[in-house]
Amino acid sequence: xxxxxxxxxxxxxxxxxxxxxxxxxxxxxxxxSRVMHEQHLDxxxxxxxxxxxxxxxxxxxxxxxxLTLRTVARLAYALGLRCRLRxxxxxxxxxxxxxxxxxxxxxxxxxxxxxxxxxxxxxANG
Length: 126
Prior knowledge:
A two-stranded antiparallel ribbon has the order 1-2. Helix 1 (13-38) crosses helix 5 and helix 2 (43-50) packs across helix 3. By secondary structure, it is mostly helical. It has a single domain, classed as lambda repressor-like DNA-binding domains (434 Repressor (Amino-terminal Domain)), CATH 1.10.260.40. The protein is built from 5 helices and 2 strands, in the order H-H-H-H-E-E-H.
């Protein structure tokens, strides 16, 4: 089977926004999962702390459900954390796009690993 060729056209503004949305959703889920792992906490235990069912927590962590700021605050609180959101410019002084800049702070700052162009295109093309 022939591999699909990568779409090399510039992203539209709407595609760019969708990528930012998906990266933030992915980042929040990954960070919450990482904190849960560090705390030796499983989804069932987190669900109990939230008064929810395990499938609800799974859907939230995967990004299948809309994560409102209220929901993120409740998830963080259930993990003994406070979530702080930081805004920063998308573009560096050199005109290059910066990686995701939202930060979940407890003791340290954590960042989303760089997303590949292939993943970005897949998200943008739905």
